[in-house]
Amino acid sequence: MTIQQLEYILSVDQFRHFGKAADHCNITQPTLSAMIQKLEDELGVKLFDRNVQPICPTTVGEKVLKQARIILAQASHVKEIINEEQQLLSGTFRLGVLPTIAPYLLPRFFPQIMEQYPEMDIRVTEMKTNDIRKSLLSEEIDAAIIANLPEENIFCGETLFYEEFYGYVSRKEALFKHDLIRTSDITGERLWLLDEGHCFRDQLIRFCQMETVKVSQMAYRLGSMETFMRMVESGKGITFIPGLAVQQLSSEQKELVRPFAVPRPTRQIVLVTNKNFIRHALLKVLKKEIQSAVPKEMLSLQAVQHLV
C-alpha cells in the first residue's frame, strides 16, 4: 500500500468517475485502474462498486476512504513540520473564505502576496460558515477567513479587522431621503437578503430584530450580494453591504449608501485554523499582508460600532 494509491482512491471517491479522477491525478485511466486494482488485491476487498453509475464506494470502501484521509493528513503534517522548522513558505495552502468577504478582500491583498511571495501556493475556495467548519475539521482546508471568533475550542482564531454594515438603498425608497438607517425604518417588503446559512444575513436579522420578517422576493433567495446591488441600482428595494464593498463603488453608486445610526452593526473578520495547524510562519505572513491591505481605521473596534 502506498500514499499514491490512497491519493488515487480518494480522487475516485471525489469525482465518482475513473476518467475524471485520472485527469485530476495527471495519469492515464488504465494506470489509475491498475493501481486501484492492485490495492484491492492486496487488501482482499473491493473498494468501489463499478456496476453502478456514478461509481460509489462499497461499505468497506467507505471505511478505508475514511482512514485514507487520516493517513494523508498525517503525512502532509510531516512536510509541514519541516517547512515550519525551516520557516519555508512553499507548498500548497488551502484557504476558505466567506462569499460575503472574498470579492471585496481578496483583490486587496491576493495579487500582491502572489507577487511578493511567488513560492506560496494559496488555493482559495468560497464557502459558507458551516462548510468551513467541516472542512477545517477534516483538514480539507488549512485556514479560513470568517466573521466573528469561533465559539468551539477546537478552533483558533486571530482578529484581522472590523467591518461595518451599510444600507444600499434605491432612489425610489423613502429611506433614500434619510441620512442614516434606523432599525425601525426597515421592513421586509422590499428587502433583498442572502439565503439562510449566510452569517452576514443572520447577523443583520439579529441586529435589526427582523426574526419575523418574511422576505417577499423568494425567487432571489439564492442570489448574491452583487445581484442584489444591481437590483437596488435599477430602482428596486434595499439591501446591505459590508464596508470593503463600499470602497469599490463609483461616486454614483456611493450615493445609494446609507450608514446605520449609532451603534453601527459591525462584524469581526477572523483568520481561523484548527488546533492541529502547524504552519504559523505562513499564517503570520498572510495576516500581515491582509491587515496592511485594509484601511487602518478598520484594525480596531470603534466606540460607535457594535459587534453583531
If you had to describe this structure to a student in words, what would you say it looks like?
With 308 residues, this protein is an alpha/beta fold. The protein has 11 helices and 10 strands. The strands form 2 sheets. Strands 3, 4, 5, 6, 7, 8, 9 and 10 form an 8-stranded mixed sheet that branches. Residues 214-220 have low confidence and may be disordered.
* Overall body shape: elongated
The helicity comes to 40-55%
Structural class: alpha/beta
| Strand composition percent | 15-25%
Number of helical stretches of at least 4 residues: 11
Low-confidence stretches: 214-220
Report the end-to-end length measured between terminal Cα atoms.
50 Å
Largest sheet: 8 strands, mixed
Radius of gyration: 23 Å
Order of helices and strands: HHHEEHEHEHEEHHEHHEEHE
Describe the structure concisely.
The chain is 42% helix and 19% strand. Strand 3 (91-97), helix 5 (102-116) and strand 4 (120-126) form a beta-alpha-beta unit. The chain contains eleven helices and ten strands.
Key traits:
about 300 residues, alpha/beta, 8-stranded mixed sheet, 10 strands
SSE topology sketch:
Blueprint lengths: L2 H13 L2 H8 L3 H15 L4 E2 L6 E2 L1 H27 L5 E7 L4 H15 L3 E7 L2 H9 L5 E5 L7 E15 L29 H9 L17 H9 L4 E5 H5 L3 H4 L2 E3 L4 E11 L5 H14 L11 E3 L1
